[in-house]
Design a protein that fits this description.
By secondary structure, this protein is α+β, with helices and mostly antiparallel strands. It contains two helices and five strands, in the order ββαβαββ. Strands 3-1-2-4-5 form a five-stranded mixed sheet.
């Protein structure tokens, strides 16, 4: 089995409307995002997935989130948790890279706090 990973980051603000605690107040994060692809066979050039292609798609997806108020994005249902952000990024990447062997998206709110979505 082969795995590849790319990563990038973005900064954004959010609050969790249905959470009681400090995260219900508006605050921001410098998010780190890691995207994994996984598969058993290699394609052209002996690659599972071209790093440049995956990084380019990730940059496009993150550009829409960078310096945004994540609560303004309807899919987050006013609770843009790291879990929902990971799903959102995965879904947008899958739209941009149909047939790509995407395996998971990890979203780090801090170096020690991460949510992962894998289908």
């Amino acid at each position: 089995m082969y795995s590849v990973r790319v990563e990038s980051d973005f900064a954004a603000a959010h609050h969790l409307s249905h959470y009681h605690g400090k995260c219900e107040r508006l605050h921001g994060h410098n998010y780190r995002v890691r995207v994994w692809a996984r598969g058993e066979t290699l394609g052209e050039g002996g690659m599972l997935l071209d790093f440049g292609v995956l990084k380019g798609a990730l940059r496009e997806v993150l550009a829409a989130l960078d310096h945004a108020d994540l609560n303004a994005i309807p899919e987050f249902d006013d609770d843009p948790s790291a879990e929902r952000i990971a799903f959102h990024i995965f879904s947008r990447l899958a739209e941009r890279l149909p047939g790509a062997p995407l395996a998971a998206v990890e979203v780090y709110e801090t170096p020690g706090s991460m949510a992962r979505y894998e289908p």
